[in-house]
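Sequence in, structure out. Go.
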Amino acid sequence: MLHRGAAAWAAGDGAAYGACFTADATDVTYAGTLYHGGTEIGRAHRALCDSFLKGTRLDIDLVDLRFYGGDTAVAVTRGDVRKSSAKPGRLGKLATYTLVREADGQWRIAAVQKTQRKPLLEALSFRFRPDTRPAAN
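Output:
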């Protein structure tokens, strides 16, 4: 399902991207913008794909996926937006997705929160307060 969204993004299809979300979804961008519902998310991304994001792709790497019952999951990804012609590189954003399987059997995004990673701030925190380092690092 996340790859379906990335494919819609790469195609510049904001409406198809919005269709990956539930009707009452929330999308919190790394810039702090809050969108409500797949229709609004699609409309906004259509405008973005026609301007600032034209010719870009969304690269995603799944870090963690946990299921809570048969119809709910939480996914954590690393990702980034880059020009379609760019070579793969470091993925500097993190996103947490709440995914639900709807009545039609399709998985959709009910909520997503994106964060820009700050490696220097992380390194300083880990150096001066080593107990802040996650076990996975």
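Check: The longest helix spans residues 38-49. The chain has one domain: 2-132.
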